[in-house]
Write a structure and sequence with these properties.
The structure holds two protein chains of two kinds. Chain A is α+β, with helices and mostly antiparallel strands. Among the domains of chain A are: 185 residues, PAS domain (Beta-Lactamase, 2-Layer Sandwich); 158 residues, Histidine kinase-like ATPase, C-terminal domain (Heat Shock Protein 90, 2-Layer Sandwich). In chain A, 22% of the residues are buried. The mean pLDDT of chain A is 83. Chain B has one domain: Response regulator (Rossmann fold, 3-Layer(aba) Sandwich), CATH 3.40.50. Chain B contains five helices and five strands. In chain B, helix 4 links the parallel strand 4 and strand 5. Chain B is globular, with a radius of gyration of 13 Å. Chain B starts with a strand and ends with a helix. At the A-B interface, helix 7 and helix 8 of A face helix 1 of B. The structure holds adenosine-5'-diphosphate and magnesium ion.
Chain lengths: 532, 123
């Protein structure tokens, strides 16, 4: 209840209860007043009736003594019949206002006040004229200073046959009114009773108003306030983002309908939110996908462009280098022919010839790669190519302080491709590793069979303990001319050419690296189908 | 003595050929450009012409066609700088006898020249 009346300004129920209470108070007051009024009226008319019969009784009691002109007896009867408690005073007076008999002896022979009920009962304005009222006001109620009310009643004593035929002949026959009899009754007892009733009635009304107000309040609270509170709590939860909340439906009335439509609204909201979230997510995914696509296209465009210019350059370089190379080869041959077989000179010249031929091969590889012309393709045994490369490198000065840890799978890995191109890839991997380790450390080489997307691949791993690759360089690694090595030492072509070759034969080239710890390259080449 | 003409803009190629062929009993003349080579061919007959396919003044193909058009019966061996089958095929179609890829070894030149001369003598 405190919740309701705590702040009437904000509580619907409080307002309703107050309004209903006020209405009840007003209506009850009107009833209360009407009932009391009516009761007072009824009591008065009863009092008047009794008063009338009392007056008639006095008239009768004094009838005989009047006729016999026995004033003493009449006076005695009047005195006798009045009682100070209830009948305060009885006066009998003539039309002129002179009191002939009175319960209070001292008033006999005095004249009634003209403005008193004695005269105003019949006359409109007794002081000025003798005009009669249309309706006689035979009685009135006055209150004495103590608050006790009293009823004054006037009755006419009419001239009768007995009166004008009586021996005394006091009253002529044409005289209509002989005199009046007026009595004052104390209504004190009635007042007390009425007052008590008033109190009781007030109490009943108050109790009634309170009970009805409480009842109405309770009904409103259970039927409106509580469900509304539940709804509000639900709304607050929803405003807080909890769309899984639902309001319990406890009735089939309008509140129930409201709760139901509220729940339906939440469901719609939730669906809308989920939908929106899904859209946002798909949108984000779509954007990410497109971005990636654009990035890839861009990189591959850049790559293609770079490779194209690389191709043009390679062609030019190849042409220029082939001429001096021809000279070297020719003159090495000519020189060799001048020395006896198996001499040291012949061996040395053979190295010159071999290395020159290697140069020419590298150049033609570059050309092949750049111009995508067919190379010498065939079935290559990867393990064999790899061991040959390692063997060749071990004798090189660059690799004198490098330990090779070779762990090759015993199986034969036959790959369709160009052996010299594969050798070129492996060579490049070893040279890069040696450079990264500053010619000191261990290179691990391993081959193994792996499955990718249902296809068989041979994976060749090259791991070193070198400086590692910085995160920001990772993306540029396979770009042509990307190098971190000093000018004249690195060309930045090794990985891009290797990548090109691997891709050309349907393989992949991956790298994992930790700065300061080392780098691993993984070359995957598809195994030739006939040798699987 | 068989006369061989070598047309190449590169000094080292000309020298290489001369030094390879001369000791084997061939009379070698060299020209540094297409125009010079064609002029020499007008003056005297050659058995074999070694022709570089890529020269600054004249395209090898053009020189080849002019030799075909002339009265010369010399066999033309193309020296190509590209490991390019296309170029070789085009040259052979235009009437070249054979082709050699750069960089070549003395043996290759010798065997190609010998083959050409044997072929010439058979006829
Ligand atoms: N094993 C490795 N360890 C550390 N860095 C490497 C390794 N392999 C390649 N890199 C980095 O990738 C760059 C590009 O390599 P590459 O394409 O082979 O060209 P180059 O060796 O001529 O620089 C290198 O300069 C080096 O920074
Ligand atoms: Mg490298």
């Amino acid at each position: 209840m405190n919740k309701i009346f705590g702040n009437p300004d904000r509580s619907l129920v409080a307002k309703l209860i107050i309004a209903i209470g006020v209405l009840m108070v007003i209506v009850s007051f009107i009833f209360w007043y009407a009932i009391l009024q009516k009761q007072q009226q009824d009591i008065r008319s009863i009092a008047v009736k009794y008063g009338d019969s009392f007056l008639a009784f006095i008239k009768q009691s004094t009838h005989y003594s009047m006729l016999t002109l026995d004033s003493a007896k009449t006076q005695e009867a009047v005195e006798h019949l009045s009682s100070p408690d209830v009948i305060k005073e009885v006066n009998i007076y003539d039309h002129g206002g002179t009191i002939h008999f009175s319960s209070s002896e001292e008033r006999i022979s005095s004249t009634v006040v003209k403005t008193s009920l004695a005269c105003t009962a019949c006359h409109e304005d007794p002081e000025k004229s003798s005009a009669l009222l249309n309706e006689r006001m035979r009685w009135n109620v006055t209150k004495d200073p103590q608050g006790v009310s009293s009823l004054s009643l006037v009755s006419v004593i009419e001239n009768e046959k007995d009166c004008y035929t009586a021996r005394c002949h006091v009253h002529p026959q044409n005289q209509k009114i002989i005199g009046f009899i007026k009595a004052d009754f104390s209504l004190g007892l009635l007042d007390v009773a009425l007052h008590k009733q008033k109190e009781a009635l007030s109490l009943y009304v108050a109790i009634f108003v309170i009970i009805v107000s409480l009842f109405v309040g309770f009904i409103i609270y259970t039927m409106i306030t509580r469900p509304i509170r539940v709804l509000i709590a639900g709304m607050e939860k929803i405003a807080g983002g909890d769309l899984d909340h639902s309001v319990p439906i406890t009735s089939g009335d309008e509140m129930g309908v409201l709760a139901r439509s509220f729940n339906a609204m939440i469901k719609d909201l939730k669906e809308a939110r989920d939908q929106r979230e899904k859209w946002t997510q798909t949108l984000e995914e779509e954007v990410a996908r497109k971005t990636e696509e654009i990035r890839k296209t861009h990189t591959s465009l850049v790559q293609t462009e770079k490779l194209a210019s690389l191709g043009r350059m390679a062609a030019g370089v190849a042409h220029e280098i082939n001429n001096p190379l021809t000279g070297v080869i020719t003159f090495a041959h000519l020189l060799r022919d001048r020395f006896p077989d198996k001499s040291q000179e012949v061996d040395d010249l053979n190295v010159i010839i071999e290395q020159s031929e290697r140069c020419s091969k590298i150049i033609s590889n570059l050309l092949t790669f750049a111009r995508a012309t067919p190379s010498e393709k065939g079935s290559c045994d990867i393990n064999e190519v790899l061991s040959r490369t390692v063997f060749m490198l071990k004798n090189q000065e660059k690799f004198h302080h490098i330990k090779f840890d070779v762990d090759m799978d015993e199986a034969q890995f036959i790959v369709f491709g160009d052996a010299s191109q594969f050798q070129q890839i492996f060579l490049n991997m070893f040279i890069n590793a040696a450079d990264a380790m500053e010619k000191r450390g261990k290179i691990t080489v391993a081959t193994r069979r792996v499955k990718e997307k249902g296809k068989d691949f041979v994976e060749i791993e090259f791991s070193d303990e070198g400086c590692g690759i910085k995160e920001e360089d990772m993306s540029k690694l396979f770009e042509p001319f990307f190098t971190t090595k000093p000018i004249g030492k690195g060309t930045g072509l090794g990985l891009s050419v290797s990548h090109g070759i691997v891709k050309h034969f349907g393989g992949t080239l991956k790298v994992e690296s930790t700065v300061g710890k080392g780098t691993s390259f993984f070359v995957r080449l598809p195994l030739s189908e006939t040798h699987q | 003595m068989k006369k061989i003409l070598i047309i190449d803009d590169e000094q080292i190629i000309r020298t290489s050929c001369e030094r390879t062929l001369a000791p084997k009993g061939y009379a070698v003349t060299s020209a540094a450009s297409g125009a010079e080579g064609l002029a020499l061919l007008e003056k005297e007959p050659f058995s074999v012409v070694l022709l570089d396919f890529k020269m600054p003044d004249m395209d090898g193909m053009e020189v080849l066609k002019k030799i075909q058009a002339s009265s010369s019966s010399a066999k033309v061996i193309i020296i190509t700088g590209y490991s390019n089958v296309d170029t070789a095929v085009r040259a052979l179609r235009s009437g070249a006898y054979n082709y050699i890829e750069k960089p070549f070894t003395p043996d290759k030149i010798l065997s190609a020249v010998k083959e050409a001369i044997d072929d010439l003598e058979e006829k």
